[in-house]
């Protein structure tokens, strides 16, 4: 798989800029719709959408009927929510940093008030050991996510989205025809 990923990167090199582990564009300032990467919080609108606010994942009902009824009654459409610990949120942001190819010690210091190298010691040590990240000699606050690291970010993000698909399937399972 690493060889195939390397072939893709080589084929696109010079023609496209890598915006994330799996997105490429003609310019670096192209709009990139992976809102979860650039913003710590996001609001999903509509049936079955996800929001992440105040360290809590909110999932709107997947039932179109319930969604319409709740909105018409002036109520929230959130059906489930889960509060995440500070460490869980840091691990999630670490994953997104690996995926986007932008990993910053300053971000973790400013956002969470922690030293990234000690707060996520296992994650940092393992990613350094496999050559996925390395220190930026020009700026000690920034880490360089190597091509190997971008591939690791891609694989981890794939697993993350597979998990989200499982959540969607679980929430859709009890729906009846009248909910569609």
| Strand order in the sheet with the most strands | 3-4-5
Give the tally of β-strands: 8
Shape: globular
Low-pLDDT stretches are none
pLDDT averaged residue by residue: 88
Main β sheet profile? 3 strands, antiparallel
Description of the molecule:
Strands 3-4-5 form a 3-stranded antiparallel β-sheet, with no helix packed on it. The mean pLDDT is 88. It has helices at residues 2-12, 35-38, 64-72, 86-100, 105-112, 116-119, 121-129, 147-172, and strands at 17-18, 24-25, 50-53, 56-60, 78-83, 103-104, 133-135, 142-145. It is an alpha+beta fold and 180 residues long.
Write the layout of secondary structure elements.
Elements: H1 2-12, E1 17-18, E2 24-25, H2 35-38, E3 50-53, E4 56-60, H3 64-72, E5 78-83, H4 86-100, E6 103-104, H5 105-112, H6 116-119, H7 121-129, E7 133-135, E8 142-145, H8 147-172
Antiparallel strand pairs: 1-2, 3-4, 4-5, 6-8, 7-8
Helix pairs in contact: 4-8
